[in-house]
Structure formats: structure tokens, C-alpha cells
Sequence to fold (367 residues):
Amino acid sequence: MQYDKLRICHVIGSLRIGGAEKLYVHLLNEIDVDLKDALLLTSNKNGKLLNELSANVNIHYQPVKFLFSPYYIIKLAMYFRKKEFNVVHAHMFWASFYAVLAAKLAGIPVVFTTEHGMNPWKKQWHYFIEHYLITPFSDMRICVSKDILENRHNKDRLPINKLHFIPNGISKNKYKPRHYSKGVIKLLAAGRFIEAKDYETLIDAAKKLQKKNIDFILNIVGDGELFPVISNKVSEYGLSDVVKLQGVQSNVIDWMYDADIFVMSSKREGQPIVILEAMSTGLPIVSTSVGGIPDTLENNKDALLVKSENAELLANAINKLVNNNELANKLGYSAYNKMIENFSINAISTKLCSMYFKVLSEKKTNV
Fold:
């Protein structure tokens, strides 16, 4: 759908590999409007996802220091006013802080944010900023999972009328059935090496699978602060031959097509893009039942979901699929169809643009 009257600027800190960043790129590529800018609050022009932005997206760099400074807000406001945007949409906390205040100063009529995670790291001063600086000047705060929406309302005390649930979305890929044999089963996990992903439990599960005499390789794609910790644990457990830490990879989809089972061990999530990516290839999924995952996948219909922080349950679910190729393909095919029906980036971007247009029209009517 064409929205000729929309001139949109999406703002984010940087384009490292991550779910929020991938959604940012998918949305900008898909939205069909008169003008769309990617504004990055960094001087780093080597973001892993930069090359995935389409040629009709204007990229602008506006470095800021993530400490309060009116100088950066004024510079952003001048940029917004110069480009004559009528929609500014910020992603994640610091981008929202700077972009929302700058948009207000510049007189931008429509201001949205997207809430990508539960953000347990927040201190009292973060909540103060949320409540008194970001929310009053935002028209809508999009939440990518129902859990996040409830958390923003109940814990962050954001008004329910400014919260709206729109799930993540990705581009359609080709379905591929998996045909297990007596050979090595390829397991895949992907995501940043951070506490929330709980790769320590995944390594515990791998050790249990080894004790069950399952012939497998577990590839973990990603990087992060806990990479050395997980690497050491793999060595200590004697799993170096079967657990491979592959670092950051540019095209996770290729890894998914080469895998037999996708595994997610997280103890906390919003709605992970990587789950949608796995669904888009028909890759059978074993995951913990946290955050927005149960809203995305139905247990025993689209995937096998287990309690978090329980290596035994995780290993048993993987083992169940290893020994039942028919069930694995049934779950993968069901998840693939659900992704196409509910989580395509086309449907998500159309819904979001409709909201921009609705708010913009209402404001014009009230002038």
C-alpha cells in the first residue's frame, strides 16, 4: 500500500546484529512511502546489517553520547526539521530518549517508539525518563510481544492507551523439509552471548545429549560479552568436538537451511526475530517457553516448548525430535505456515503504516 503523504525517519543506536536491528532493516526495506530515512546515533559505518538496507533508504549518521546533552537533541531536531519528516519512529531506550525529545522540539506531528525487550537492567532514573520525558511526547509505543506490553504498563507505569501490540515480522523464505538419517544431526542456536540467552543451560543440555549417545553437532552463531565464559565451559565439559562457537555470521538463514533442529535456551525474551527466521525455513524448533515465544509458537503443534533453565527438559525435547522425523517435519511445516499468515513483514509494515496515517490524519483534523 502506498502512503504518499508519509515522510518517515526510523531512529536506532546502531546496526549491529540483533533482533531489534533486523526488524529495523526489514521495516525500512518494506515500507512503501514518499521518503524514508535510517538515522543511526553512531559514527560507526561498519554495522553488519548496513548492506541489507535497500538503495531507496537514506542513511544518516548523527553520533551522540549516551548521556543527557541538550546539544545532541538540538542537532537531531534541526535534522528532523530540515528533512520535513512527519513521522519519527525510534527503537530502544536511548534512541527513544533522544529522538522523542528532538521530534517534539522540531514539531514533528507523529512520534512512535518500539519496545523490543523486557529491559530488566533499568534503574529508577530510567523509569523517570520513561514516565516523564519519553511517554508524554510519544503518540504510540509499539510492543513486539504481549509480555512486553504488560511489563511496560504494570512495571513502567505507561498508560495503556499509548501501548499497542504489533509482533515482529520478516520476509518470506522457502520451506524445506528435513530428512534425518543415521548420520550426524545438526543443531543450531543463534543470538548474542548474553545472560538472557542462557547458553550455559544449552551446554548442559548438550552434555546430556552426548550421554544419550546421540550423534550431533551443535553450532552456536553469535558473539557477545559471555563468549569466553561459554567457550571455557565447552572445553571444561569436553564438548569441543560437538559444540562449535561460530561467531557472528552474516546470513543466519543459510545456517538454518543447513540445520536439522533449531534450539533456543533463553530465560528471557521479547519476540525473537531468530525464531521467526527459523519458522520461515520450516526448521523444527525446540525452545524455552518465555516472553513472546508462546504467543508465536503453540506447544506440540508448531514446536516443542519447555520450561527455562532446565537442561534435562531441553535435552529430552531435542532427543524426541531426533528420534521422530515425522513429528519434526510436522512441527516445522506448521510453524512455517503460521509465520506466513501472521508474521510476514508485509503485513506488519502495512499495519504500522496504517497507524502512522491514522494518527497523522487525526492530528490534521484537530488543527
Notes: The mean pLDDT is 92. Residues 3-171+344-366 form a domain with the Rossmann fold fold (CATH 3.40.50.2000).
